[in-house]
C-alpha cells in the first residue's frame, strides 16, 4: 500500500502529463466578442468534447452553426429547448440551469461553462510548480523551521492542492488561451490583467474550499481532529498565501503576454 503523500504525487504527475498531451493537440476554443459565448474553430474529438465546424455557445441555448447556414428557420427553432410544460418539468429545467454540477452533463449547445480543455500547457505547468514550491516553502521555512523530515509530506500536500487546482481550473477555463483576458477578449475593456487575476482568485477560492471540505470529511471518517494528518498543518497558511500568489501570478502573466 502506497503512502497517501506518494499517491497524491503519482496522481498529480499522471494528471499533468495527460492534460499536457491534450493541450498540445487541442487549441480550438476561443471566446467571441460577447462574454459567455464560446466558439469552436476545428473538427476534433477530445475526451470531453466533440465539435464540428464553427459553433457558437451562448447563454440563450441557441446554436449558430456556420457549417449549415442554409438551415431553415423552423429547424433552427427546433434546436431550442422546449419551454413551458408541467410545473415539475419547468422547475427541474431551471434547477439544471442554476446548479453548476448539472452543466457538466449538458450537451455542447446548452453548456454555459467553458470547455474542459487545456490550451495553454506551459501555464498549467507553471501553476503546478508555484503551488508545489509554495507548500514546500511554508513547511521548510515557516512551520517546521528548516527541517527536511517534513518535505515529503509537504510535497504530498502540495500535490493534492495542485490536483484540486487543476479540477477547479478546468471548470473555470483557467487553462484556455482566453484566460489571459479573463475570458472577455483582448478588445473588451472588461478584460486584461485585472480580469485574469480575478479568474485566478476565484479558481483558488474554489480550490481552497474543496481542500477544507476534503480535510473535514477525512477527519470525520478517521474519527480525529483536523490538522493531525501529515500536511494538514499547512492548510491555513497555504490558503492565505496561495490566494495572493495565484492572483498576482495570473495578473503578471496577463500583463506580460503579447496579444495576437
Topology at a glance:
Layout: H1 4-25, E1 29-31, E2 38-41, E3 44-45, E4 50-51, E5 54-57, E6 64-65, H2 73-79, H3 87-98, H4 100-103, H5 121-143, H6 151-172, H7 193-222, H8 235-255
Antiparallel strand pairs: 1-2, 2-5, 3-4, 5-6
Helix pairs in contact: 1-5, 1-6, 5-6, 5-8, 6-7, 7-8
Characterize the structure shown.
The model is unreliable at 22-30, 32-37 and 40-86 (pLDDT under 50). The chain has 260 residues and is of the alpha+beta class. The strands form 2 sheets. It has a 4-stranded antiparallel β-sheet, with no helix packed on it. It has a two-stranded antiparallel ribbon with strand order 3-4. The chain is built from 8 helices and 6 strands; from the N terminus they run H-E-E-E-E-E-E-H-H-H-H-H-H-H. The relative contact order is 0.13. Helices cover 54% and strands 7% of the residues.
Amino acid at each position: 500500500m502506497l503512502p497517501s503523500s506518494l499517491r497524491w504525487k503519482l496522481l498529480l504527475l499522471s494528471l499533468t502529463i495527460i492534460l499536457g498531451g491534450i493541450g498540445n493537440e487541442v487549441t480550438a476554443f476561443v471566446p467571441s466578442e460577447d462574454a459567455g459565448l464560446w466558439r469552436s474553430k476545428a473538427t476534433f474529438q477530445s475526451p470531453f468534447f466533440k465539435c464540428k465546424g464553427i459553433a457558437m455557445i451562448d447563454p440563450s441555448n441557441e446554436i449558430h452553426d456556420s457549417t449549415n447556414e442554409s438551415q431553415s428557420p423552423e429547424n433552427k427553432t427546433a434546436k431550442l429547448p422546449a419551454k413551458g410544460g408541467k410545473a415539475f418539468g419547468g422547475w427541474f429545467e431551471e434547477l439544471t440551469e442554476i446548479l453548476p454540477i448539472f452543466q457538466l452533463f449538458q450537451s455542447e449547445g446548452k453548456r454555459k461553462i467553458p470547455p474542459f480543455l487545456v490550451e495553454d500547457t506551459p501555464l498549467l505547468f507553471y501553476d503546478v510548480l508555484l503551488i508545489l514550491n509554495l507548500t514546500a516553502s511554508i513547511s521548510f521555512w515557516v512551520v517546521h523551521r528548516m527541517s527536511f523530515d517534513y518535505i515529503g509530506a509537504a510535497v504530498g500536500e502540495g500535490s493534492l492542492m495542485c490536483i484540486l487546482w487543476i479540477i477547479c481550473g478546468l471548470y473555470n477555463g483557467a487553462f484556455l488561451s482566453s484566460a489571459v483576458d479573463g475570458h472577455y477578449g483582448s478588445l473588451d475593456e472588461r478584460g486584461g490583467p485585472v480580469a485574469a487575476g480575478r479568474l485566478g482568485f476565484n479558481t483558488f477560492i474554489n480550490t481552497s474550499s474543496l481542500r477544507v471540505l476534503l480535510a473535514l470529511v477525512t477527519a470525520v471518517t478517521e474519527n480525529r481532529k483536523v490538522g493531525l494528518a501529515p500536511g494538514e498543518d499547512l492548510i491555513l497558511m497555504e490558503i492565505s498565501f496561495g490566494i495572493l500568489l495565484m492572483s498576482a501570478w495570473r495578473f503578471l502573466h496577463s500583463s506580460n503576454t503579447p496579444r495576437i
